[in-house]
Amino acid sequence: MSTLLTALIAAAVVSTLANTCTTVYLHRALSHRALTLRPEAAWVFRLVLWLTTGIKPKEWVAVHRKHHAFTDETGDPHSPVLLGWRKVQAKNVALYRGALKDPDIISKYAKDLPDDSWDRALFGHNKTGLLIGIGILVVVFGPLTGLLAAFIHANAYLAGNAAVNALGHHFGRKPYDNGATNLQWLAFCTMGEGLHNNHHAAPSSPRLSHKWFQIDPGWWVIRSLTVVRLAKLRFDDIRLTPSAKASVS
Distances from the Cα of 177 to the Cαs of 34, 201, 243, in angstroms? Predict the structure, then answer.
């Protein structure tokens, strides 16, 4: 097998793990409390995120909750309506970092996620996690393939997450009356996050697919976790916001 093909396969696996942890743990479990994970399952999600993204959960949650508080209005950290979708797609990471410069954003939007002993000892050191993750790829696949896989994964993961914020508020279907859109191809790439219009219509729902033909891979993971009793759903149905109910009535 060629170096490039091996790197592509390794990057696809790592990016899928990172996107799964992002949608299930950071987004649906922490940000919206749509499900509760058993401590051992939550620890595994935290570890994988630490190794594959270096994200600090409370920071991601704070920025995302602020996005919902000011969706496509002044105060939204990454609105393509205000900034243009091209800028959000290209500078999504910078927009997150800019939002985190607000000294009050964590205390206002993520005060329910204080650092614990694991954060202080391990997960709070995000650059260390990324370096260890890259090191694992290098050890398993060799220096050239491992570094190439890490490079491909980083670009794919960042581009996918930026696309949810950029393309997911500009292109696609709008079954509900909100500024977000549904892009099924993007949902395939981001474990369900591309069904963004559905999410804004029912943000506390653990399931992003509202129709039989919509595919939400993150929901398959959540259902599997509930079967083995590693997760508990906040509720099992789709609960639309009042404005979303009005738009389909």
Answer: 22, 8, 7
